[in-house]
């Protein structure tokens, strides 16, 4: 039997399967689960345990960014507009969010 604490996590945690690889997307702010105002700008971390990932990726999520702030000079279908699968997964929960990789090279 599953204990109640395991059914209701105290910190936001998502298990992800992205392009056939598994990883963990998590936050360290438990208030993100209970206070919708915390969802404006917050931090998430991603780790997949693959050899090429030497450290946990630190992501900053901004859910109140504006679509018109994005560079419109590029064609949306061009390779420069390709988005990492992790960003696309995050946007299933927070559509339109801007995601900063904070110095980490985005991986696809």
From TrEMBL:
<keyword id="KW-0833">Ubl conjugation pathway</keyword>
<comment type="similarity">
    <text>Belongs to the MINDY deubiquitinase family. FAM188 subfamily.</text>
</comment>
<keyword id="KW-0645">Protease</keyword>
<dbReference type="InterPro" id="IPR039785">
    <property type="entry name" value="MINY3/4"/>
</dbReference>
<dbReference type="Pfam" id="PF13898">
    <property type="entry name" value="MINDY-3_4_CD"/>
</dbReference>
<keyword id="KW-0788">Thiol protease</keyword>
<keyword id="KW-0378">Hydrolase</keyword>
<feature type="region of interest" description="Disordered">
    <location>
        <begin position="62"/>
        <end position="87"/>
    </location>
</feature>
<dbReference type="GO" id="GO:0006508">
    <property type="term" value="P:proteolysis"/>
</dbReference>
<protein>
    <recommendedName>
        <fullName>Ubiquitin carboxyl-terminal hydrolase MINDY</fullName>
        <ecNumber>3.4.19.12</ecNumber>
    </recommendedName>
</protein>
<dbReference type="GO" id="GO:1990380">
    <property type="term" value="F:K48-linked deubiquitinase activity"/>
</dbReference>
<dbReference type="InterPro" id="IPR025257">
    <property type="entry name" value="MINDY-3/4_CD"/>
</dbReference>
<dbReference type="GO" id="GO:0004843">
    <property type="term" value="F:cysteine-type deubiquitinase activity"/>
</dbReference>
<feature type="domain" description="Deubiquitinating enzyme MINDY-3/4 conserved">
    <location>
        <begin position="6"/>
        <end position="103"/>
    </location>
</feature>
<dbReference type="GO" id="GO:0071108">
    <property type="term" value="P:protein K48-linked deubiquitination"/>
</dbReference>
<comment type="function">
    <text>Hydrolase that can remove 'Lys-48'-linked conjugated ubiquitin from proteins.</text>
</comment>
């Amino acid at each position: 039997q599953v204990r109640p604490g395991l059914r209701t996590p105290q910190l936001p945690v998502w298990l992800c399967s992205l392009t056939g690889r598994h990883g963990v997307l998590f936050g360290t702010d438990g208030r993100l689960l209970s206070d919708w105002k915390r969802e404006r700008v917050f931090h998430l971390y991603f780790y997949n345990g693959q050899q090429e990932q030497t450290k946990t990726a630190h992501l900053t999520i901004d859910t109140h960014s504006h679509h018109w702030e994005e560079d419109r000079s590029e064609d949306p279908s061009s390779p420069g507009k390709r988005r990492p699968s992790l960003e696309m997964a995050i946007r299933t929960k927070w559509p339109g969010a801007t995601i900063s990789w904070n110095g980490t090279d985005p991986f696809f």
